[in-house]
Amino acid sequence: MQIELNNLVRVYNSADGLSKVAAVNDISLTIPSNQIFGIIGKSGAGKSSLVRLISMMEKPDSGEVLYDGERVDNLSEKELVMRRRRIGMIFQNFNLFSSRSAGQNIAYPMEICGLPKDEINRRVDELLELVELSDRKDARISTLSGGQKQRVAIARALANKPDILFCDEATSALDPQTTASILNLIRRIQSQMNLTVVMITHQMEVVRDACSQVAVINEGKLVELGSVNDIFLNPKSPVTKDFISHIGSDRKAGDGSDIVRWSQEGGEYELSFPSHQQGAPVLSNVAKKFDVEFNIRAAGVQHLTDGDIGKMIVDFTGFQVKEALEYLRNQDIIVEKAGE
Predict the structure, then answer these.
(1) Could you tell me the domains of the chain?
(2) Integer Cα distance of 296 and 63 in angstroms
(3) Cys staple from 10: which of 24, 255, 321, 337, with CB 3.0 to 4.6 Å?
(4) Distance of alpha carbon 78 from its chain centroid, rounded?
(5) In the chain, % of residues over pLDDT 90
(6) For residue range 55-82, what is the model confidence (pLDDT) as tens digits?
(7) What crossing angle do the helices spanning 102-112 and 117-130 adopt, rounded to 10°?
């Protein structure tokens, strides 16, 4: 299911009621079918408002939302109810019924749709097996861990066989290890069911580990859009650069996934290496070809869904620094002043 957004605008009253705030400000983008697409932004950036429009929870003040080329922002109330049944939603706080067991929570959307009891029971068993909770069907929600609750919520979101799955900060309340397991589960489900998955998050780690494309939202506007690989290799907006610079705080240094800095001094240039250059002796070649010396202050690898990005923070000294940097750029290496 491809989703197309054309010039979406959503305006709210400010907290004091004296002015208007454009939470979504003329955003246009296309979310490809059968992929995991990330929407990332800081608190208050407008990403949650945008998702309410995409998922038809609210109507835009202007603009269009299209699913596979058909407008859905102007559906009648009856059409809206029917279309929403083909959308799955996962939330940060799980939104499960504490009075129901795990299996009964999963059954609830199908009960609302009036499916036969035998069919509901079969589907509940299928979904519990899918999320690896077959032995917890009759468990009370209060007895489940955070990760297990989110697995029940995922199963419930899939109950009516949706073609779109929205994950609104679905891992924000989970520890890093549980987050990794939930992201692995979502990737597996997306692949098996050919779902279009939209992940809303403020965590760049989630984008890195799960998504193939990402939109960066700031102050209600789309500030960057592209493949995760391209954006990690060459981020353009200050917001995106700030997100990427803070990645790795939940990883152990030395596990191959961090940018590990062993010197807090210096570090004038940041080098980003695409996959085909990560095994090449690039800096050694630079030192041989030009009158320069280099000092590596930090290095590491970011593992993405479509490949790896190598990073280094380096100082160069000598008479041919300008020529050396130009040589690096000609080798498909991104060279930027660190911190810019």
Answers:
(1) 3-230 (3.40.50.300), 259-337 (3.30.70.260)
(2) 49
(3) 24
(4) 32
(5) 54
(6) 999 999 999 999 999 999 999 989 998 8
(7) 130
Confidence band, pLDDT 50/70/90 cuts, at residue 245? confident
Whole-number Å distance between alpha carbons of 218 and 45: 5
**CB within 8 Å of 148: residues ≥ 6 apart:** 102, 133, 136
Q: Is 217 left (phi over 0), alpha (psi -120 to 50) or beta?
A: beta
Give the list of residues 6+ apart from residue 270 with CB closer than 8 angstroms, or none: 311, 312, 313, 314, 335, 336, 337, 338
Q: Of 289, 285, 294, 283, which is closest to residue 318 (Cα–Cα)? A: 294
3-class secondary-structure state, position 173? coil
CB 198 within 8 A of CB 4: no
At 272, the pLDDT band (50, 70, 90 cuts) reads confident
| Model confidence at 252: pLDDT above 50 | no
Q: Is 184 left (phi over 0), alpha (psi -120 to 50) or beta?
A: alpha
Q: Can you tell me the distance from the alpha carbon of 245 to that of 231, in angstroms, rounded to the nearest whole number?
A: 12
Q: Are 151 and 179 in contact (CB under 8 A)?
A: no
pTM (whole model) above 0.85: no
Do 194 and 164 contact (CB within 8 A), yes or no? no
